[in-house]
Amino acid sequence: MPRNSASQWSTVRWLVAIVLGCAFAAQAPAQKQDTAKDKDKDKARPPAAATVDSGSFGVFIKGQRVVTESFSVQQERGLSIIKSHLKDASGTANNDQSSELEIMPNAQLVRYEWDETTPAVSSLVVTPSNEFLIEKISTSATAKPAEQPFLMPNTSMILDNNFFVHREVLLWRYLAADCHPEGGNLQCQTGPVEFGVLVPQDRTSLRVRIELVGKEKVNIRGAERELLRLNLSGEGFTWALWVDDHDQFKLMRVAIPADNTEVVRD
After folding, report:
1. What's this model's pTM, rounded to 2 decimal places?
2. What is the 3-class SS of the chain, one letter each residue?
């Protein structure tokens, strides 16, 4: 990592503290003491949402844009809220999906909700059930939702289909928990690190692995940039992901060679 690695590392730990509630967050700068009057006003005023990241990803298959994912990661009401919306890039409304993920400061899932209006109307909700998870799936407004329990911790990551912002949050968790700056470089645990994740649309749980590869020069919208590459793999798939370690470790590009698919931040 460059000379400013300490400040960059404080940033990624702050991001993960906001998104996942990790205890090793960098200390916030000291603030001036408010007057009693100001404190009373602050108590009456609901806290403003703090935006951690927002933007959009373009999803390209064989070089043609097929889907745009608009997303935001915010801290609000003491929760971390990750929202995403998929829209068909052709303008024909062949794909319209939304998701919202809420996480407590201790990393416990509060609620995950997904809904689709095109091509079919359906929805699902994942919530904690004691220390585990339960998913409820609705395929119509009148039918009783089907339920499926998952015997996995309620701090497991959601990694749903098609939502690349979920991959960004997972990478932040890996970087903060399993890596540290040393001698101006980023040092991570030797070999891949496993995570248990839930894929609600597939109604299944998976074990995925993340491993740091290192710095690479990557073409982003016609410009060459040096980014940090990580590999995300599981049973039957391997993805390459690049983050910008000069800009809060934001996810910039994803390559899925087996599907001729590329994802690029707009």
Report:
1. 0.83
2. CCCCHHHHHHHHHHHHHHHHCCCCCCCCCCCCCCCHHHHHHHHHCCCCCEEEEEEEEEEEECCEEEEEEEEEEEEECCEEEEEEEEEECCCCCCCEEEEEEEECCCCCEEEEEEEEEECCCEEEEEEEECCEEEEEEECCCCCCCEEEEECCCCCCEECCCCCHHHHHHHHHHHHHHHEEEECCEEEECCCCEEEEEEEHHHCEEEEEEEEEEEEEEEEECCEEEEEEEEEEEECCEEEEEEEECCCCCEEEEEEEHHHCEEEEEC
